[in-house]
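Hi, here's the filled form for the chain we discussed.

Project: internal
Contact: R.S.
Residues: 78
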Amino acid sequence: MKNNNRWIAKNFGDLVDLYGGRYVAVSGERVVAVGSQFESVERKARGTEGKGGLSVLRVPAAIEIGQEFDPVRLFRIS
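And the returned structure, exactly as it came back:
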């Protein structure tokens, strides 16, 4: 499993809280682009791609996966 994918799995709840319903690009184990369309997010992220490669995914909204929004978790990561 690529480092980015491990990072995504580890931080999935935070990604849902912050970016639910949007596409995110992860490179170097950090979010480098966010948007509503896959193509535009990928294009934005290509310029920031580091050693870790690039992973682009649609983060589901909390309601789509039966997860409740957790404002305490969001506060901890901001």
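Let me know if anything looks off before we file it.
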